[in-house]
Specification:
The structure holds 4 protein chains of 4 kinds. By secondary structure, chain B is mainly alpha-helical. Chain B is built from 14 helices and no strands. Chain B is 69% helix and 0% strand. The chains are: A alpha+beta, B mainly alpha, C alpha+beta, D mainly alpha.
């Protein structure tokens, strides 16, 4: 009998205690924000969409090798002896034409492993996090600055150059 | 009564009857459902430190309108193995049950669909139709979760009808009338005349009655809460167990019908509580219309007070919903059969003894 | 008089609101009483162990994050400790302290999700959001430290990816100060609620012997009454420097080892974690967090088993090295996977509604069960 | 034919048609749900007879209680559609005689009873009257019925316990 009334009593009391808590919260200001209108400031270490500063990229392929999901694809073509590709901002000499530098953000896992090995700090994470697309192919970002014709040209140039070299080599071989 | 008024106005009992029948639906249930759904979401939001709907209209006030439009547009999915006939009737039947109850709810001394002599009894009877509709929906869905939900719901509503009726009986015994109009009229326009505070008669009984009336009020509130399947008694549609119970398979307007019925029911049971214990449509502090000598103001004030009290109790239902976990099915039955019914019986007995003193 | 009844097979999941992911439970019911539970897993299988064999050692770390995605820091810690043992490197003191702080913050965050979703399973939705509100603050702390909120890749072999943010200590102290009253409020709203107690106490009682026989670990084992916590009993990192208790189930509301105990042990563990964080922050040494990170990770041939106390139990990594840059084999002993086995044992004879209560109290993360 | 008649025929049709469906339908759950409409129609007829209390009791007891119980039973049976209720016809002649006699008696009572055609405009609440009758004139029968029901209840409970 005592347990019976005790049950009723504790049930009512705990319900009232709970109701007090929720009533208090009814009048506390909300912790959420109106997202697309209001946005929270992001911390400076925010890890979101990658960005590659191609001016500094030397095409060393280290980021692609560090990537655990293979979302970075880099193709490079050696520059010809006469060509000057300029220098990176921290003084490294560029020696490769980067004909292809794509990052597939549908695959990217935002782990930041590609950022650390970069010798010129040209690949880094930005705070852009709204980049949804209707088509998955649109998520493949191409960072290479060369136009398609230029790329073709560079590849062609290098092919010709190496053929020439090959011929030269053959010639020298023959002559010897 | 509104029927007589319309009968005089139009001269045709048929038109008057039709208008009287439709009035609660268009003047009250639909606007109330629109309002209550928004209120529910807003209350939930603010209690959880959120804001609730904010996009459609100022602070989201048109959100439910948008939802209704969405629901109307939605495809009405009927699965291949559903029992098509029953599947289509069930939501209508459920809504009809809760709609019929509104015929006897006294919104004010004028706005009262039918002054049935057995008003309160009638409301309890027609809500029985809801059970049949729910069972029908659960069975016709041909889904195990729906069937379990429907079974639980039926068992729950039937068991909680008993404490409700017992408490109603104690009031009926005290007053000798079952008409909601008479009940409301007898608790004249000051709050100390409410049955919650012992009724309108100033005698020693009034003070003796107060604690037992309070118990009766708690019991009827809890059991009506269970009858409309609200937390902590929302076992039939417990989303974490039964996905959403008997309306799992419903979509579009049929789902909206269940939803509408649920909200209409919420108000109907609050209205019962208000009419029985809290003076019905009577104002707690006297009427402005009497003070200013404007007669037509009084019914409006009464309507305001009735909806205000009703919506307050709907708010309490929501408040409870966002506070409490839900019971288990056997605990639910235990709560009714072991706690509410015996206490209601004793309460009835004691009120009986006091009333013959 | 006995009535012959027909058993019903109810399929719960893989799409069900309260299976905590994509778990499928095949329930055999007699009326509403459970006679058998068969968990079907594998819907979230992502070949973690196979992936590890082709990844280099640091590349595995982002993959470990994704196992128990609610306790990514703990996963990283276990793996990293294993690789460090293989490499035989000593990490700086500061690194160890920060790892402990992170792991304990993660434990609180993880338990908040466990408790919140448990409340939501039982039907109380509001505590769920209160828990998420507090968890959000922990995630913000992680975010300022390493830039990610859920999958951090923060703890590296030999060090950490970043040092602490300058504001971290201040913000953590603020969080601890404001979290304590919130925890009290949670207790008022949910823990001591009569309905919640009725739903969970004496439900799914796990006797200690059964728990040990099934290899159950973590809060589940402790709720059954055994003081077994790897942080104390097989101490790793710098846990032996801190003073904290190991809460165990006492059967306060029902029997030792029931669902309420499992729930309550988690609540108490959050308080203990707060204690550890407070102490660690007070005595945080200075130093460089990246100094000990090896340039090339190429452990000698050998194998190691490293285990840590994750929020869900003992997380063990068995790493075999063949001397190359990628592990030969990484076997994970996932606590959720082991704990999930007990479902059938716990659920028999209970009602359908109790399956939810029991599953919630087991607190599984399907990412870890399936890996 | 006025509105009153119209409503009467409506309810009568609902009652008879749904009763027919109860008997003939192959699916027993459907049969059970048709019974709902039968009960409902009967309640409507009671209302038209100005027997308001009986009508509502009909709803509470039959729709709210008995029908739901029936539905519970029906839904939990494992053979729901195409239930063969009919058995082979045996004793055709005695059955015809019996049914014929019963129908005759029923028809005779229908024809001979003095039906009171009551004006629906003047309905008097019957609750009070019924109450006084039950608790004064027919008190003994009322109490006896109560005891019988109680015995049935206890019996059911004790059987269920075994």
């Amino acid at each position: 009998m005592r347990a019976y009334f005790n049950n009723i009593f504790t049930a009512l009391i705990t319900i009232f205690v709970g109701m007090k808590v929720t009533l208090r919260h009814l009048f506390t200001p909300s912790v959420t924000i109106q997202y697309p209108d209001v946005k929270l400031p992001l911390p400076e270490r925010e890890r979101n969409r990658l960005y590659v500063n191609m001016d500094d990229c030397i095409g060393c392929d280290q980021c692609a090798r560090a990537c655990p999901v293979n979302c970075i694809e880099i193709e490079t073509v050696k520059s010809l002896p006469g060509e000057d590709l300029g220098k990176t901002s921290n003084g490294k000499k560029k020696a490769l034409w980067v004909t292809k530098f794509t990052i597939d953000f549908a695959k990217c896992c935002y782990c930041q492993l590609c950022v650390f090995p970069c010798p010129t700090e040209c690949i880094y994470m930005t705070d852009v996090y709204e980049f949804s697309e209707y088509d998955r192919n649109n998520l493949i970002y191409d960072f290479a600055t060369l136009t398609p014709q230029e790329r073709q040209e560079k590849i062609e140039n290098f092919r010709k150059f190496s053929e020439e070299k090959e011929k030269q080599k053959a010639k020298t071989d023959k002559s010897e | 009564m509104i029927y007589d008024f319309l009968n005089d106005l139009t001269g045709s009992p048929f038109i008057a009857g039709t208008i009287t029948a439709l009035l609660p639906l268009f003047a009250f249930i639909l606007p109330f459902a629109l309002f209550a759904v928004l209120l529910e979401r807003k209350v939930a939001g603010h209690m959880q430190d959120r804001l609730g709907p904010m996009r459609v209209g100022y602070h989201g006030i048109l959100q439910t309108v948008a939802d209704i439009i969405k629901l109307i547009q939605k495809e009405d999915i009927i699965a291949r193995n559903n029992d098509k006939l029953l599947f289509n009737i069930a939501p209508v039947l459920t809504f009809a049950g809760s709609y019929a109850a509104f015929a006897a709810i006294p919104f004010s001394s004028v706005f009262l669909g039918a002054n049935i002599d057995l008003g309160i009894f009638y409301i309890i009877a027609v809500t029985g139709l809801v059970v049949a509709g729910i069972l029908m929906a659960g069975w016709a869905s041909n889904n195990k979760y729906s069937l379990l939900g429907a079974m639980r719901s039926a068992a729950q509503i039937i068991s909680y009808e008993i404490p409700t009726i017992l408490v109603v009986l104690s009031i009926v015994m005290l007053t000798g009338t079952m008409s909601l109009y008479d009940l409301s009229e007898s608790q004249t326009s000051y709050f100390w005349n409410w049955y919650l505070l012992g009724g309108p008669e100033f005698e020693i009984q009034k003070f003796l009655l107060i604690p037992f009336m309070l118990i009766g009020f708690l019991i009827i509130y809890i059991s009506t809460l269970a009858e409309v399947n609200r937390t902590p008694f929302d076992i039939p549609e417990a989303e974490s167990e039964l996905v959403s119970g008997y309306h799992t398979e419903y979509s579009g307007m049929k789902f909206a019908m269940f939803f509408l019925a649920e909200y209409a029911n919420m108000f109907a049971v609050s209205a019962i509580v208000v009419a029985l214990f809290l003076g019905g449509y009577q104002s707690p502090f006297g009427y402005l219309g009497n003070l200013l000598n404007i007669n037509w103001l009084i019914p409006l004030e009464q309507f305001f007070w009735f909806t205000f009290k009703g919506i307050f109790f709907v708010f309490v239902q929501m408040w409870l919903r966002w506070t409490l976990p839900r019971l288990r099915v056997d605990q639910l039955m235990a709560a009714s059969w072991k706690y509410l019914i015996p206490i209601a019986f004793f309460n009835l007995l004691i009120i009986g003894i006091i009333s013959i003193l | 008089m006995s009535v012959r009844t027909e058993e019903m097979v109810l399929n719960m999941g893989p799409q069900h609101p309260s299976t905590h992911g994509v778990l499928r439970l095949e329930l055999t019911l007699d009326g509403e009483i459970i006679t058998k539970v068969v968990p079907h897993i594998g819907y979230l299988h992502r070949c973690f162990e196979k992936h590890c064999e082709v990844m280099s050692y640091p590349q595995v770390i982002p993959y470990t994050d994704r196992m128990d995605y609610l306790a990514a820091m703990g996963n990283e810690l276990g793996y990293v400790i294993g690789v460090e043992k293989l490499l035989r490197i000593q990490v700086p003191e500061r690194v160890e302290y920060i790892r402990v702080i992170m792991a304990e913050l993660q434990r609180i965050a993880s338990h908040l999700v466990a408790i919140g979703t448990y409340g939501a399973d039982i039907g109380a939705f509001t505590p769920f959001l209160y828990c998420f509100r507090d968890r959000e603050r922990i995630l913000n702390l992680f975010e300022i430290t390493c830039g990610a909120r859920l999958l951090y890749n923060y703890i590296w072999v030999g060090g950490l990816s970043h040092d602490l943010h300058p504001d971290f200590v201040r913000l953590t102290k603020e969080f601890i100060k404001e979290f304590k009253p919130n925890l009290r409020e949670l207790n008022n709203l949910l823990t001591y609620n009569k309905i919640f107690i009725d739903r969970t106490a004496n439900v799914g009682i796990l006797p200690l012997e059964t728990a040990i026989n099934f290899g159950v670990t973590g809060p589940m084992l402790r709720a059954s009454g055994l003081k077994w916590d790897l942080r104390k009993d097989d101490t790793y990192s710098v846990y032996n420097k801190f003073d904290f208790d190991i809460p165990i189930g006492e059967g306060k509301m029902g029997t030792v080892g029931d669902s309420w105990d499992r729930y309550y042990v988690r609540v108490l563990e959050m308080e203990e974690s707060l204690k550890i964080i407070e102490q660690a922050i007070e005595t945080l040494p200075d130093g460089d967090v990246t100094s000990a990170i090896p340039k090339k990770i190429k452990p000698p041939v050998g194998h190691v088993y490293s285990r840590v106390e994750n929020p869900r139990g003992e997380l063990g990594y068995f790493i075999i090295s063949d001397g190359s840059t990628s592990p030969f084999r990484v076997k994970v002993r996932a606590p959720s996977f082991v704990n999930l086995q007990i479902m059938d044992e716990l659920c028999r004879g209970h009602l359908v509604a109790d399956v939810i209560a029991i599953l919630g109290s087991v607190d599984i993360v399907l990412g870890e069960v399936d890996r | 034919m006025n509105t009153y008649d119209l409503i009467f025929y409506l309810f009568a049709a609902v009652t008879i048609l749904s009763a027919l469906m109860v008997v003939t339908h192959k699916n027993i759950v459907h049969s059970a749900f048709y019974l709902l409409f039968t009960f409902f129609g009967v309640a409507g007829l009671y209302v038209l007879l100005a027997a308001d209390f009986i009508a509502i009791v009909q709803l509470i007891v039959y729709v709210g209680g008995i029908l739901i119980l029936l539905l519970f039973g029906v839904m939990l049976t494992n053979k729901i559609t195409n239930v063969e209720i009919r058995t082979g016809t045996i004793n055709l002649v005695p059955a015809v005689i019996g049914v014929g006699l019963f129908a005759g008696a029923l028809l005779a009572s229908v024809v001979n009873s003095p039906w009171k055609i009551k004006n629906p405009e003047h309905t008097v609440p019957t609750t009070k009257l019924l109450g006084t009758l039950l608790l004064q004139e027919y008190l003994l029968i009322f109490e006896l019925l109560g005891i019988v029901l109680l015995i049935a209840l206890i019996g059911a409970a004790s059987i269920a316990r075994k």
